[in-house]
UniProtKB/TrEMBL annotation:
InterPro entries per record: BTN3A2-like_Ig-C, Ig-like_dom, Ig-like_dom_sf, Ig-like_fold, Ig_sub
Species annotation: Triplophysa tibetana
The protein's name in its UniProt record: Calmodulin regulator protein PCP4
Localization in the cell: Membrane
PANTHER family xrefs: IMMUNOGLOBULIN SUPERFAMILY MEMBER 5
One GO location term (cellular component): membrane
Taxonomic lineage of the native organism: Eukaryota, Metazoa, Chordata, Craniata, Vertebrata
Basic and acidic residues biased stretches: 329-339
Gene3D superfamilies in alphabetical order: Immunoglobulins (2.60.40.10)
Annotated signal peptide: 1-18
Length: 375
């Protein structure tokens, strides 16, 4: 009995205070997209009107629906005890931002807010870059035509490195944002500027590539080759110019570096030249010995006289010159003074003997040296 009474009282109260709801509240959508709202009333009534910024858009009266334009539509979710309609606003315009009102018979009204966001453009000015490793380079991101003020961030190789704040100018509700990023070039990177407003599931992205180049500069030892007295100290200065990044500089003395093919080739060439000269000189000696036997005493006298008047330097300087495998020619000041036709040798002269011995010993030394280098 008591339970029945309580149910009756509740029914009376419920009927007196109707349940009116407009969902969702505070809707934000992107310009051009659609916005949806549900309006419901318990208990159900026969009439409902939708308004946008106080202007009628949809009206349902006793089963008949009238709409103010093609951008508006309703769906019926009503049941026996509840009136529920869903309003869809398609292709949302800037002017749609504001109040959405649901109005029932008897002027019961509920209000929700619609805000319209705008997706603008984003660009990194200057495009792709190529910079020297270690150099600083500045990127500028420009986001135009966003609403509300967008979140702008930078990412390098997928890692967010900077979030830009307070970098916008606005024209009414529309914002232009500019943000710079300074990067020290280390590795080839993709640099991205990401711009987003809350209604976007993924940001608008601009990507540029940063190519890092290395510079191979020059290297020189100042002062060049040295000749110093044994035991003396000598200082070398290495100068490496135009390298990037900072190069590793190291010194080596008789180190493995110079033992390359160049040295081997040089040695081979010098060895061949020495061998040729050796053979040539012995050929000349042999030829002279044979010729001398045939020549008259007079001729010999003349030749001897000439030899004494001409400097012996011809053969000795040649011997010195060919003795080492360094064929510089700068140890031979007399060389160019001797005419070629005067090349004549007295086999009995002690100088000739000495020269031959010198050539042989130098050649043996050279052979040894070659062994050492090759091993
Ligand atoms: C409105 O209500 C219906 C049924 O309850 C639901 O399917 C729909 O998603 C709702 N729409 C909005 C915008 O909440
Ligand atoms: C909405 O649906 C309810 C229940 O199905 C129905 O009684 C009512 O007439 C419908 N209203 C409109 C406008 O179609
Ligand atoms: C930047 O480089 C990428 C890849 O190397 C290329 O696809 C893109 O077109 C370049 N952008 C510009 C503006 O040159
Ligand atoms: C942005 O600027 C506003 C006023 O112009 C200031 O109140 C706010 O603290 C600034 N925010 C940041 C993160 O600098
Ligand atoms: C934003 O940028 C656009 C395009 O560059 C320009 O037309 C507009 O005047 C700018 N607005 C403001 C507030 O600077
Ligand atoms: C923008 O950044 C602020 C602070 O970093 C964050 O609270 C907010 O959710 C961000 N908004 C969007 C749309 O990402
Ligand atoms: C960077 O990219 C350039 C081509 O864009 C390439 O030549 C270079 O080798 C790359 N550098 C590194 C360190 O990968
Ligand atoms: C130093 O001497 C070597 C061998 O004689 C020669 O190849 C090189 O060019 C010389 N270097 C300089 C800087 O004179
Ligand atoms: C330079 O030397 C350092 C230390 O010896 C070494 O860690 C580094 O890898 C070297 N860099 C190059 C490019 O050789």
């Amino acid at each position: 009995m008591a339970v029945f009474r309580l149910a009756l009282i509740l029914l009376v109260i419920g009927g007196a205070a109707a349940q009116v709801q407009l969902e969702p509240q505070n809707v934000a959508v992107l310009l051009g997209s659609q916005a949806l709202f549900n309006c419901s009333r318990t208990p159900a009534v026969s009439s409902i009107t939708w308004m946008l910024n106080k202007v009628f858009v949809v009206s349902i009266q006793a089963g008949s629906i009238s709409v103010s334009g093609p951008r508006f539509s309703v769906k019926n979710y009503s049941a026996s005890e509840i009136l529920k309609t869903e309003l869809t606003i398609s292709n949302v315009q800037r002017s749609d931002a504001g109040e959405v009102t649901c109005l029932f018979l008897g002027n019961e009204a509920v209000v929700s807010r619609l805000s319209v966001q705008e997706r603008g453009s984003v660009a990194i000015t200057g495009g792709n870059r190529t910079v020297i490793q270690g150099a600083q380079t500045e990127f500028q991101c420009q986001a135009f035509g966003w609403s509300p003020e967008p979140n702008v961030s930078w990412s390098v190789n997928g890692v967010v490195v900077k979030i830009c704040t307070n970098s916008s100018v606005s024209q009414g509700n529309v914002f232009n944002t500019s943000c710079t990023l300074t990067v020290t070039a280390a590795i080839n990177s993709s640099v991205q500027c990401l711009v987003k407003v809350s209604t976007m599931s993924s940001p608008e992205i601009s990507t540029v590539f940063l190519s890092v180049v290395y510079l191979r500069g020059s290297v020189a030892i100042k002062g060049g080759n040295r000749t110093v007295i044994q035991g003396a100290q000598t200082e070398f200065q290495c100068q490496a110019f135009g390298w990037s990044p900072e190069p590793n500089v190291s010194w080596s003395v008789n180190g493995p570096k110079p033992r390359d093919y160049t040295i081997l080739i040089a040695v081979t060439v010098a060895f061949s030249a020495a061998a040729l000269l050796f053979l040539l000189i012995f050929g000349i000696i042999f030829f002279c010995r044979r010729r001398k036997k045939e020549k008259s005493g007079y001729e010999e006298e003349v030749r001897r006289a000439r030899l004494q008047s001409q400097p012996m330097a011809t053969i000795t300087s040649d011997a010195r010159n060919n003795g080492g495998y360094v064929t510089d020619g700068r140890y031979d000041p007399s060389k160019k003074d001797v005419p070629a036709e005067d090349f004549d040798i007295d086999m009995r002269a002690p100088e000739t003997e000495k020269a031959a011995v010198a050539i042989q010993s130098q050649f043996r030394k050279f052979q040894k040296k070659k062994h050492v280098v090759k091993s």
